[in-house]
Structure formats: C-alpha cells, structure tokens
Amino acid sequence: MGAWWSGSVTTFLHTPPDQLCAALSHKVVQNRFQGEPQQARAWEAQIDLLRNTLPTIPNAQDWQVLFEFPIPRLGGRIDTVLVSPGAVYVLEFKIGSSSFDASALSQTEGYALDLLDFHAASRTHPLIPVLVATDAPPRAQTTPLLLPLGVTEVQRVNGTGLKTLLTTLAVQTAHTENPLIPAQWEHAPYDPVPSIVEAARQIYATHSVADIHTARADATNLTQTSACIASILEKARTEGCKVIVFVSGIPGAGKTLCGLKAAFADGSDGTGATFLTGNPTLVSVLREALTRDTVSRWQKRPLVEQRMESTIQSLTKFRDHYVGRPAECPPEQVMVIDEAQRCWTQAQAVRKSASRHVKLTESEPAHLLDIMGRHDGFAAILCLIGHGQEINDGEGGLACWGEALLSRPAWRVEAAPDVIGTGDLTHLPATLEAGRQRFLHLGVAVRSLREETAPRWVNAVLNGDVETARRLAAQTDLPFRLTRSLDDLRAGLRHRSRLTYRCGLVASSKAKRLRAEGLGCEVPHMDDKAVSQWFLNRWVPDRDIRASDALETCATEFAIQGLELDFVGLCWDGDLIRAPSGGRWQPRRFSGTKWANVSSAEATLWRLNTYRVLLTRARYETLIWVPKGSADDPTRDPETLDRIADFLMTCGVLLLEPAAPAQAFTLQNDLADLLQD
C-alpha cells in the first residue's frame, strides 16, 4: 500500500504540474476507478496551491509530500499528507467550497484518527488534520493544542490562509526529541482492524481477510483459520462428501470475519454459500450496510437487496422454509451459521413452533443437518462458536450439535480441539469421531484495539476471581472506566467519540429500573429498520436522533451481540448484583414492583453471559455507569448498587475522570460550529 505519488518538497517543486497530474490520472486507470474531469481540475488547483505555499515554509525542503494516500478501512484516500520531522499534516481539500461542512470535517478527522490507530509511524508525533475549503471566508485561526502524540482538532482554513497556518505549525513543531524521517513514513506498517460492518464491506469487495489484522504478530491466525476452512471445504468438494466445521474463538477474535469470507467466496464453481444467523440485528445491519455501500456505486437498490437477502439470511426463516418444504433442496451448498451454539434444543424447538405454521419436531441442529443433507454429494456447514455467548433459555450449545451428529454418520466433523470432550453443554461429546484442527480456534482478540487482556479480565470479573482481575489490571491500562453519573457517562462518550468514532449506550434486557434514572428507552431489536438506523446513521454530522451516538436509546444484548461500537457506555442495573454475603454474583428479575432472586444455574449462566456480551462490545473503551440509586426506592437500593461499583473498583477499574474544561470546550465549540455551518 502506498500513495499515488510521493516525494520530497524539493522533488515536488521541481516536477512539472502536468507531469504530476498525468501520474495521478494513470493511477486512476491502474486502479480501475472511473476518471472524472472535476477530479483532474481539483488536482491541478491543489498542486498550484501547494506550489505557492510550501516554498515559504522554513526548513520544509526535506518534508515528504504524498498525494492520494489510501485508507482502506474507511474506503477513501487522503488528498495530501505532509510529513515533517515533528508532525504529520493530513490535508483534505474542498476546491471551490465556500464552507466547512460537517461531513468534510468528519472525513478529515477520520483519516487522522485512522493513522493514529493503525499506522506505525504516526503514533509518536502530533497528527494535525486540516480541512482546506478554498473559497471559504477567512477564519480567526487559533493554534491547536499540540500534544506529543495524538490527533488535534481539525484546523479549518481557506486557500489564502493555508500558508500562514502551515508556517505557524512548522515553527511550533520544529524541535522534537525523536524526529520522524519523512521519506520513511510512507513505508511504515499500516495494519487496519475494521469493525464488523467495515470488514463485511471489505470482504464483500475483495473476498479476503489478508488485510484484516493487527500489528500484533500473534493475531496472524485469522488468516490461517480462513485458509484452514478453505482447505477443508475444497477437500470435501473434491471428494463429494459432506463436512461440518466448528470454528471456536474468544469474543472479538474474528469468527464472524472468517464466516463472512466463506459466505462471500466466489461462487464461480457453482457452489453458492449463505451466512445464517439467529441474530436479527446482525442480519439487518450487515444487509443494510452492504446495500448502502453497493447502491452508492450506482447499482439499483432492489437488485442489491435481493442479492443480500440470499447471501445473509435469517436462520429462523431459512429453517422454516425448508422444514416446511421437505422435498426442496437449498441452492447453497455451503451454510455458515453464526453463533451456532445458540441453536435450539429439541424441547425448545417443539415448544417455540407449537403455534407456528411450520412445526419443528427435532432440534435446530438436527433440522439444519437434514436440510443440507438433501444435497447429492458435497455439502458443508461452517459453525462459528462463541464461548460464553449463550444468553437465552433453550439454547442447546455444542452438546446439541453432538447429539444430532452421532445419529448422522454421513457427516465428516472437523473441529477446534477445545470444543471436544468434557460432556457438558459447551462441548461436542468425546465419543464423536472428529478431526482436530488447531487453526480452527481463534484465541487473540482483534476487536479490542488498545488492550488484548480485556476478555480475560471480563472472565475473571464475572467468575468473581478478584485476584486474577487485579493482576491483569496491574499489568496494563484496562479499557474500562467507572462512573456513578449518567451525565458524566454521556459527556465521556461524546468527548471520546469526537466527530468520527462511534459510541452508544448498552444495557441488559432485564435492566428494568434504569427508567427511574431517566434511561428507559430500548432499541427494538426485532425492528430491522430501527436497528440499522441505530448502528449506521450518525448524530454528528447528521443530527439523527435515532443514531447510537445520539445517546438517547439503549441497545440490549440481543441488539448488540455480534456487533460492536468504538466506545460503549454500559448501564449496569440491579438485575446482576453482588450478593450481600458469599462473595458471588446474584442475578435478579423484576416482577411486579420488586426484584426477585434467580436461583436456577442455567438462568445465572445466561445473565452472566449477558454482561459478558455487553462488556466486550467496545473496540476501544467501555465506560460503566452504576447508578447511585435512591434511599426512597427499594428497587434502587444505594447499598446494593454500591456493592457492584466497589467490586468493579476492587477488580481494578479506575474512576472516569471528567473531561477537562479546555477539552470539553473544544468539542462543544466544534458542535456549535457545525450547526452554524
């Protein structure tokens, strides 16, 4: 990956403008983009402006100039990057624009934040995003706060003011202890870790997970797992047999990415694939995201929607369609099942379908195996298994799959070693003949970008293992903070999300007393449109109150499972408390006018798993709000809520620090300016 053109300032100034434009135009053809006359004119204006600006900047002759630097995760390219020894300038040009519109500000900041997170040479020096609206009225320019590292607020300047701005910043960043080598910046590792929605878009376009990884060497098994799956499927296809593959992994390790890779694989050999999930929110969000992305490339929406409906399907609708049509064989020969451990047991399937048009007689695994077994010769099922993700009653776990497979010997079984053997709900039975493939387990979290110990810490906390939790917390800066104020929670999320990162509030579906705290509005997880709007629409810059970052509605475990946000605000209610004695977690349900303890071992497991899901949804940081309660309301007993907060702090969670006044002012000022613009 590299810029479409790069060179020192000296080289840039000695290269004729028409030669630069020709080189950029050649890249358009080379990358199979559609050349537009306005793009060529924009390059000409941009080059002229930089040729008039750069010679006046002191000691800038060895700076590096990069045109059209690609940012694959965001699906775009930075117009110009200027790399000096003391700072990196991210320039977005809006040629002929007379205003600094909100989408352009968000785009510019997004590019800079992406470099901070994923570009190795951009982590130890200031990143300064600059939006150049060439025809905008002049603004009173204030110097940004230049920290040793990180992204400043977006600088807004017109064409005339660019020279003064860059000169001022060059003087301020001239002296640095560890100067960058501008010519080497472009070649530093760039390792993007997209969100699940961004990854789906990328995989759908390229059919590859090769670029979806982290800078950590131990995360390479994402690619290895994908290759292992492809090898198993190809062997079964060649031999004309049926195979089921179990891929396991910790939360956020990339199971869904591998599943999407298999579902989006090129079907040129005549064997189509479908991605099935019982999670309706994942279906609706991925479908809508891919539809919006594809329609934006001038394809007709009805045709795109039809294609997405066959590629990403509701497990429930797929199951009922073929159970109700026993003679019909699905066209897809490869079925990918997300969170396969959540499939129903026979008792649950019979009970749930008793009043439906299609009656189920066996467990979901048994029905799905029989549906795919209708194929003559090759058929494959890829089961994605998330440990600790069972969140509802009637979910049969891997034991249910094992039981169904024991009576269907035609299926060859390949599985991660950790899913075989102990005879409980979470494992395949040891008596099941299965091939053990170590690459079918994903053990490294790639969702959490800043701290890989987060899943282990969450497990320790939910297991009540204070010693382990404290040890993990002492080793690193945990991506968790605690507050007792809902206002501080919202302020902390807004400060962290800025213009680009995505934030939102989550809560347990059993959190029934948050409404007394002023937060009782849930995202209806069965409403496809509402869920897609919550995950995909934006508060900034669109002011869409339905968006997650409007911070008005909460997503429950059913809406958020399988998806993620950059920053999460977890609202902890009295449905999972620390018992007054015994040092354990006590789940409760709200009945009538009071809380009642839940004693069932299965119900306890489901509630702990609910909070496991909620605690592992953030790519960067989770802010946990535990209300203070009210002494006048027994359903919000302060002592009960204090025990939760105290336990979390004992496990190493630090208190959320309120945003500094200067920082808060910057954000508020940006938002006010957006409204005025």
TrEMBL record:
InterPro entries reported in the protein's UniProt record: SLFN_3-like_DNA/RNA_helicase
Domain of life where this protein originates: Bacteria
Domain called Schlafen group 3-like DNA/RNA helicase: residue spans: 242-627
Name of the protein in question: Schlafen group 3-like DNA/RNA helicase domain-containing protein
Organism: Gluconobacter roseus NBRC 3990
Organism lineage: Bacteria, Pseudomonadati, Pseudomonadota, Alphaproteobacteria, Acetobacterales
